[in-house]
Amino acid sequence: MQFQWYPGHMAKAKNAMQEDLKLIDVIVELVDCRVPYSSKNPDIDALANGKSRIILMNKYDLADSSVTEEWVNYYQNKGFFTAKVNSKNDRGVKAVNNVIRDACRAKIERDRKRGIKNRPIRAMVVGIPNVGKSTFINSFAGRSCTKTGNKPGVTKGKQWIRLNKDVELLDTPGILWPKFDDDNVGLRLAFIGSIRDELYNMYELSLLLIQFLLKNYPYTISDYYKIESSDNDVTVLERIAARRGCIKSGAVFDLDKAGKCLIDDFRSGKLGGITLERIKLNCCE
To answer: Does residue 3 lie in a domain region?
Structure first.
């Protein structure tokens, strides 16, 4: 599957982000726990220029918990401060304040030695589209500060948000990067909804997800939809269509509609905790 997904506003947002980095103390990057590698923008590493870094593993309730722990250890070993959060229900969110202070401990100490008191930490919040930045910020602030949505591109511009006397957040639009070195990265981002649905074929995408699930979580589909198991992706999709009543005139299965049902059920977590990639193992191939 081919993706054309890097519109001009993303390039503009990246350039603006580069300028704003001069103003901040720490970069807080949200990744989706289901794709902890593919949802991490490699351009941020190049832009960071020695800034303290935090990785927030968001939507951990939707992921395979044992695999999430492996990714937490992976990023900690690479020098990132990390935390698991579920922004929609506030789990782990309040603890992020302490993680920010830990990441900026050297900066706080420098300010103390210079006699600078009560200067807030400035944190830039970054992430790819639909990773949950706005939901996290609203949850962290305890009030509605930004627009939220279940599709990419909701945040259109940057905005400063004063959380308390200690921390200010700079929210930024979600940006991808110009080229995927691995085609599977684009596929995984399509699965979680970080690439607009209009840019790919839902039927083909659903078959690829079925193939992955049959290989890595073999009973997930049959258990959730209460259908007979099969190792054939089209047969599985037909059985989902029958179960969900996705039938067109002439008693023909509406496989496009069934495929969308499957993708939506995966994205919402109805299929259970699923992680699409593991460390040193490309599960999507």
So the answer is: no
